Each structure stands twice: as structure tokens, then as C-alpha cells.
UniProtKB/TrEMBL annotation:
Gene3D superfamilies per record: AglA-like glucosidase (3.90.1820.10)
Similarity field: Belongs to the glycosyl hydrolase 4 family.
Domain Glycosyl hydrolase family 4 C-terminal, chain residue ranges per copy: 241-470
Xref: Pfam families: Glyco_hydro_4, Glyco_hydro_4C
Keywords: Carbohydrate metabolism, Glycosidase, Hydrolase, Manganese, Metal-binding, NAD
Cofactor: NAD(+); Mn(2+)
Cross-referenced InterPro entries: GH4_Enzyme_sf, Glyco_hydro_4, Glyco_hydro_4_C, Lactate_DH/Glyco_Ohase_4_C, NAD(P)-bd_dom_sf
Cofactor mode of binding and number, as noted: Binds 1 NAD(+) per subunit.
PANTHER family the record matches: 6-PHOSPHO-BETA-GLUCOSIDASE-RELATED, ALPHA-GALACTOSIDASE
Record protein name field: Glycosyl hydrolase family 4 C-terminal domain-containing protein
Amino acid sequence: MIGPSLPSVRFMYYIANVEKKSISHAYESNIARELNRSMIKDMNENQNRKLVLIGAGSSMFTQGLVADLLRNPGRFNWHLALVDTDPRALDSIAKLCGKMISAKEGSIRLTYSTDRRDVLDDADYVVCTIGVGGRRAWEQDVFIPRQYGVYQPVGDTAMPGGISRAMRMIPAMVDIVRDVMKQCPNATFFNYSNPMTMICRALSKATDFPVVGLCHGVHDSERHVAQLAGLDLSKFTAYSIGINHLTFMYDFRYDGQDARPLIRDKIHALTQAGIDFKNVGAMFREMGEEAPAISNPYAWSFFEQYGAYAAPGDRHVVEFFPERFPGAQYYGKTFGKDAYSFEKVIAYGDRIYDRMDELGQSPDPLPDDFFDKLSGEHEQLMEIIDSIENDKRHLFSVNVQNRGAVPNLPRDAVIELPGAATARGIAALQILDYPDTLAQLLAKPLAIVELTVDAALRGDRNLFVEAVLLGGYLNDRSAAEAMVDEMIAAQKQYLPQFQ
């Protein structure tokens, strides 16, 4: 996470198990030997890759990334550099990663620092997972609007919480990208931080540096749709286009054939059988065997109306349509309270952090079953890097500037769509058949993005208010102004543009 400036803390682990083999022939001349040594040196250097992870205190992501690097490093010797401005979090995650590398006798060089400028030089990939202010600031994004009758299930992407989060995330992200431009301008930059669309749009306006936003929402939704329809995921594909956390999956294929009839028949059968929605809105960790047969009823309502499923499901999607849920009511429950409990999400995050801290600081080795419980990071990062390095041109869901790829969406907008990971970078697919109705449903959220980005870049309190009013979260200007002022005051230490 990023917070107030802290003294730089620098540590280093170097753990390697690299066998170097020399090539020699008795008949080689001295010149040939020198040429050979030079070629081997160049080849060895070309086999090295450096990845800088900024926001390494995002402990689950970092552990998963290291697990993936250990499991499948490709042909590379990896240098992984961890950055976090919280010295304690950084120390704990670095020690934990060191234990992971030692346990698997991995060939990974691990360095870390509280100052990203210590480690950015020569980076091939920069990955950002920061959360400015951490969970304590996130709580204020949700709790302050509650005082004004605005209830949010997430509050990190849309509604007042997402807008507030953008105010403190965007200046920090702009500073990070400017450092990347200075120290490793050829690096590929991946952003995982929310609010994804607002951050990536702000970076395109402030720096024009190519940034790729990644999220597991579409990937998870493809699995969800396939499982619900009883389809083999390996044979199931879909086109998904929209903005992060509101991406419409509208073209479904199974073995290359149109899968919509199969999905429609399954949904109809489930509906006809009757659905008990008493557990809808429970977090997945609570649902167990009692989950409703259709656990994202609002996301599926788009399928009934337009033949599209709204990824990544209700918890995020409903935040783009609050006017459709008067009183924040969702099947008799209240958003953020007993429907997608915000407090339980925060408590879960705190437990994950505490466990990471415990494992990192403990003098004991990792538990025997540690890797059994760690499936790797689920955001497909290493698969994307592998596709780039080997020019495989595999498709992934990415967040990039439209630039005409989807003609009926604004050219400058950052959208989520299929993109090929190539040796030349991410190449967005051109989508010429995106339904106009779905495009029109994105018009208002995209307008809120533009207002929010300009407010964050300029430190413009009036635009902050206008973004809240445009969303319809509050209809009284005086109430919107009071809420915005309270949010700015609560987050002041993270808002340099409002000083």
C-alpha cells in the first residue's frame, strides 16, 4: 500500500540454484574462445527477466505470483523485486517469499525496498497492486456514504466509494508511471489496482504511457457460465466487452457453435424449478451447498433481455445501476450489510494479512501443506507474460484504451475487451458487432469516469460533486457537497491535489 512518506528500507535476498555450463573445444583458437564466451554471456543475459511488483503487501497476489514463478519460470532466470511503503508488510512478505523460494530450491533472485526507485532500473515488467491508505481508507469510502443513506456492496469501483478511492489512487499511480518512464521506459506495465477504468483512463490522459489493466472478473465469469450450463470449460469461449466490473459477455461458443440456446435452456429449467434466493448476496465463503441455483440473478437478467451476461456478477454490477434498487434493497437485504457484507470482506482481508505476517515473521519453516493450499495467482499474469515472450498471441481479457477497436464506444475510453498478448505488446481485437444497446448502457458510467478522472487530476472539488450527482447516488446538491467534503477531510493525508 502507499501512504505517507516513510524512510527507505532496503533489504536483499539472493537465492539461486543455477548450473552454468561452458562449451569448449580443444581446437578453438583464442579468438574463437573469446567470441564464444561473448555469445554465451549475451545468451545468459537474454535469459534473464526482471519483474517489479509495486504494492507487494497485497499478500495473496504476491504469494500466488511467487508460486507461479516457481512452478513455471519458462526459460528465464527471474529477478523479482518487491516494493511496498509499509516497512512491516514489506519485511513480512519478503521473508515469506524467501521461505517459498528456499523450500522449492527456486532460481529466483529476490530483492525488496520501500522506495520503488531503488529497483525499477532495467525492469522488463512492472506490476502494480497498490491500495493507497489500505483497508482503513477503504472503510471510509463505504462508511461515510452510509451516513447519507448510500449503501455499497464493494465501494472500490463505482458509486461514491469508487469515486473517492480514485481521488487518492490516481495521483499515486501517475507518480509511479512517471518513474517507470524515467527508469525503465521499455517495461510492460500491468495495473491490478481499482478503480481500474478510472486509473487507466487517468494514466492515458496524464502520461500517455501504455498501461494494461488486468482483472480476473471475466475469466471467473466464463467459468461460472460454463459450470452453470454444464459445459466443459475447455471447449467454452465467449466475447466480453464493456468496462471493468461491468463487462457484457454476449457471444457464447461451445465447440465453436453458438451456445446461447444451451445456456437459455438451462436458465429456463432452473427458473421453472423454482429458486430459493434466501442466500443470494452471501459471500462465497459463506454460501457452501446452500447457494442459490442462480447466484447472480441481476447479472443473468441481462441475458434474458439482451442475450448477454454481465460480468463479473451482481456484487460489482449492481453498483452501476443503484437507481434500480430503491433503498439499496436486494431480495429483501441491504447492500453492504447482509447482501455482500462489506464488513466481512474487510475482516477477511485483515485475516489474510495477519496470516502472511505470522508466516513471514515466524522462525519456523513453512507448513508442510503450504503449497497445497496455494493455487497460484488467478489473474493469468504469468500466462500473459509467457504469451508475450514467445509471441503466442493468446487471448486474454484486458483493459486498454479503445482507439477504435469497438467503434460504437468512445475512442478515448478505457474498455475491457479481448486482446492478444504478442511480442509487440497487447493487441486489442476489433469488435464490429457489439450490440448498440449494450454500448448505450455504458454511456453513463463512462461519463462518470471522465468527470472523476478530471476531478482527481485537477484537485477539483466541484467535479467530484458533479460525478456523485451524475451517478444519482444523492439528488440533493447540498447533501452531495457535504458528503464530498467529509470524504476529502477523512482522506486528506492521501490527497495532495486537494491541499
